[in-house]
Specification:
about 230 residues, alpha+beta, 5-stranded antiparallel beta sheet, 5 strands
């Protein structure tokens, strides 16, 4: 009388589909990373030091997470492209916001033009602008990034654009004409390169994870019994 051979080693452990763990990280890198960097860029447009520091810290955490999720080589590319995207997206958002919601004060007058020592020791101009409309008596300082030029003289009439929420620094009207076309094209190129690099890194991670899972599955399979 013969008995049926019994399998040794027990049942094989349940397998998990790699795609179930791949999609959440991929969606975060492709969608969450650009959105988070855009938010950090917007925080950086505030003149306050706390907002700037918060934006920098969050951006570093976001880029580090993207680096880990995309692997070493592709992750380095994502980090570099993401940092470049951060540098451009903040000013673009500021230009768009000032164009859409900025309050224009026509016939404002420059009362004083002074200078300050910027980075590298360069002297940079600062214009003191007095409002002449319903906010008569209020003065605002505008730097060179806001449109102040060193050849301006007191008594010059300008149009000042002010952010009603106070998040963005005031600027002259020629600096509140919306996002420049070159900036839009630059952002589009950086975003395309960022998404391509991130998707490539995530696909490599998925293939690598699939290979490791296959090896572990083979290692856990019982050896065939002899006899």
């Amino acid at each position: 009388m013969t008995t049926a051979p019994t399998a040794t080693g027990g049942a094989a452990p349940p397998t998990r589909t790699p795609g179930r763990r791949w999609w959440p990280g991929t969606l975060w890198v492709l969608v969450g990373t650009p959105l988070a960097l855009a938010g950090c860029g917007w925080l950086g447009q505030d003149a306050g030091l706390l907002s700037t520091l918060l934006g920098v810290v969050v951006a570093l955490l976001v880029l580090a997470a993207a680096w880990i999720l995309c692997g070493a080589k592709a992750g380095a590319g994502v980090a570099v492209l993401g940092f470049a995207f951060l540098l451009f997206v903040g000013p673009a958002l500021g230009d768009h916001a000032m164009k859409e919601r900025g309050v224009r004060h026509d016939d404002a007058v420059i009362t004083e033009v002074s200078t300050y020592r910027g980075k590298g020791g360069e002297r940079r101009p600062v214009c003191t602008v007095a409002l002449t409309d319903i906010e008569r008596g209020r003065t605002v300082e505008v730097g060179d990034t806001g449109g102040c030029e060193p050849d301006f003289t007191p008594g010059t009439h300008v149009t000042l654009v002010d952010d009603p929420e106070g998040h963005l620094a005031p600027r002259l009207s020629d600096k509140a004409e919306g996002v420049a076309p070159y900036l839009l094209w630059t952002l589009a190129g950086l975003l395309t390169a960022l998404e391509t690099c991130a998707l490539y890194g995530r696909l490599r991670q998925r293939r690598r994870h699939g290979q490791v899972t296959s090896l572990l599955r083979r290692a856990s399979e019982p050896f065939p019994s002899s006899g």
